[in-house]
Write a structure and sequence with these properties.
Two copies of one chain form a homodimer.
Chain A lengths: L4 E6 L17 E2 L2 E2 H12 L4 E6 L4 H10 L7 E4 L4 H11 L4 E6 L7 H10 L4 E7 L4 E5 L5 E4 L4 E4 L3 E4 H7 L11 H8 L2 E6 L10 H12 L2
Parallel strand pairs in A: 1-4, 1-6, 4-5, 7-12
Antiparallel strand pairs in A: 2-3, 6-11, 7-10, 8-9
Helix pairs in contact in A: 5-6
């Protein structure tokens, strides 16, 4: 792990799916906001990395209050979240100093060190690495006029983060115009001409999206 | 709810994904095997229904032991699970006495009464009803030679159970030859010529597949 690293943690959510007025990145796991929990885990695993958090401007002062309350002195930059996740990452890349960039959802605290080590070894020229897992439920494709059809779930993988790229390449990818089908960094990178290598993610690496996820996160945090 | 109901609960799993030698339907939630927990919830919601459980033959005596241990006297039939889920359901339909059939995964104890009531109202001629939810993670399609491509997750829904049909129609559907792309009852029903109406499932209605699901199930069971 000789290359310098930047970790971009996106935290743009406004929490609508959580039935909570607080954005989901600030909901508490073991008495700590999820975003802080995620930052701490990264710092433990990659203490030399540069950390950049993108957060809607309205929540910067709340974040500062949390840092004080929890005595967090992990060095990091806080940038404005853009209108879309695309713009947040694009802004963050301007400030990233690492040769390699890890882009990560702020509400996924349970990523694994092994996955990151594997991904860093597999990174190559115009080749990004993303963790994926199998789907558990059967899948249907929604068609026009309330129609739908079954599709084979084995044909698909669910994509997780961190998604890992050479910084210079990802910057070039993010110089493209925004398109509405850019749902993650991998899709931006591929539209630019890069290829994606999929590695095994983990079912533990959940994205905290629904109230039930918070219950689970609480239990998982206890056993870390 | 004037129609007579049969509930077919499939429990064919051998537990390989659970890192446990016990099939996942027998793992414990609040001191009770999940399958028993599921049966009990159905009995509470639909006390008049007929219950049929499909279970691999090797596990019938274990199931009987559990029934005794937990003083369960809910009337139900236990049938052999077939080679595939398709064959299990097909066998169960031969014994089903209800005009309407609900086919359900034995490892999904947290279905909702509201969904079942809604589905029974929406059932129609050659129209089955299945609960679906949005996908949380980004999605990639796996292509030959280790290639993959991003797909819009909004085009897809994750399918849950119970899946609900008129019994006579589902029996005709199950008279078809088995095909490897029959992953659930909806796909069998459609291949026969039926249509599927999708209704809102729930994120709480999880399929207990991985160890982390068991942790969550434990917490959810407490708050029922």
């Amino acid at each position: 792990m000789q290359q310098s690293l930047s970790v971009i943690i996106t935290a743009g959510g406004i929490g609508s799916r959580m039935q909570s007025s607080l954005p989901k990145q600030f909901l508490q796991v073991l008495g700590e906001p999820i975003l802080l929990f995620t930052l701490r885990r990264f710092y433990t695993i990659l203490p030399e990395a540069q950390f950049i958090i993108t957060l809607p401007t309205d929540w910067h002062s709340t974040w500062n209050d949390y840092l004080l309350e929890h005595n967090c002195s992990i060095p990091h930059l806080v940038l404005d979240g853009g209108q879309e996740r695309f713009h947040s990452v694009s802004n963050a890349l301007q400030k990233a100093t690492g040769q390699v960039v890890l882009v990560h959802d702020g509400v996924r605290p349970f990523f694994s060190q092994e996955m990151i080590t594997e991904a860093l070894n597999l990174l190559g020229e115009k080749r990004g690495v993303v963790p994926v897992i199998d789907l558990t439920d059967s899948l249907r494709e929604v068609l026009p006029e309330a129609q739908s059809r079954p599709v084979d779930r084995k044909r698909f993988k669910a994509v997780q983060t961190p998604q890992i790229f050479r910084k210079e390449e990802l910057m070039m990818a993010y110089n493209q115009e925004f398109q509405s089908d850019f749902t993650d960094d991998a899709s931006v990178f591929e539209a630019w001409g890069g290829t994606i290598l999929m590695v095994n993610g983990s079912n533990d690496n959940l994205k905290i999206t629904h109230p039930r996820d918070l219950v689970l996160a609480q239990e998982m945090a206890k056993s870390l």
